[in-house]
Every structure is written in C-alpha cells, then in structure tokens.
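Lecture notes, unit on protein representations.

Consider one protein chain, 197 amino acids long.
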Amino acid sequence: MSITRTSDNPLRPPFASRPLRKFGMPSAINRNSTGFTLLEMLIVVAMIGILAATVVLTFMGADREQTLKTEAQRLALTLELSRDETLQRNQTWGLFIQPDSYSFVSYDDAFGRWQPIERKPFEPHNLPEDITLSSASPAQPPASQDEQTGTAQEQPEAIVFSDGEVTPFEFILTPAWDSLPWRVHSDGLSRTEAERS
C-alpha cells in the first residue's frame, strides 16, 4: 500500500510547493535594498583610527605627566627621610645631582671626604630619559680638600646636617615635552616640598 502525498497531507513540508532557487540565492537582486558603500566603510574605519590614536596619545601624555610628578615627589620624600636619618645617626649627609641622576653621600669625619650611600632608599637614582634635573639653589659652597689625598672635593648641592637642618635648595625637574617643570625646594628649616612651577 503506497501513501500518496498531497497538499492536504500533513506529512508534506510547507516549503515543498515553493520553487527552489539555485544555491538558495534570490533570482534577482532587489534594487531598493540598503547597505554601506565601500567609501562609507573606509570613512568609518579612518574615523575609528583617528579616535583610537587620540585616546592612545592622551593616555601616553597622562602617563608621562604622572611619571614627572612621581619623580619630584620621590626626591622630596627621600630628602625628608635623609633629615630623619642624620638625626638618628648623628651624621652629615649631602645630595649630589646630575642632569640625569642624583645620589646621597655621607661625610666621613675620619677621612674627611664624602662617601656614597648604597642602601635603599638613598642609593643612586637615575631619572627617566625625558626628565632633566638641575639646581636653582644659591651658589654652591667652595670645594673642600680631601684630607687623605689632598685633592679638592666637590661639595653637594644640598647638605643635611646632623641636627636635621639642611642648606636651602631648589631643584628643578624639567620634562623634555611641552609641559611645566616641577620644583623641589626647602628654605632649610621647613619641610621639603614638591610643586608645579
């Protein structure tokens, strides 16, 4: 017994009466269909690229500014810590600066010379390449004579005495990019401050 499938037969799929197109594609392109042209897509991609570059440059600039601020605050804080150390140890310390670094030293009474300090946080510190350190302090004290070698020895740009006082100083951290520098300064009695020029 054979089963005859008709249009009224519930076993017949509903699409069986529709003509199938080759590969399931429409037989003709609808001319009224909307979409993006290649030119519109290129313009959108270009705009996204410009916005992304702007965001990246903004974050990079903010990161550099934060680094500059951190370096200024680090120098001010380390100078304040050195004042506490000289009081506790009854020593005289100094700070030598270079355009790209700074280092703390202690005065050795036995040899009459400045000795480098290597322990943290007073070990020599190198600045990032795009930040320059300079001194706007009054004239540097004259060089002293090394008692052991008899040669002249440079004096630090700032001297921290054993009673916690420090010679007045003003150090400038200048960025290589177009931005205001930071000042690290003290009048010798008040706390060391870091502030924007």
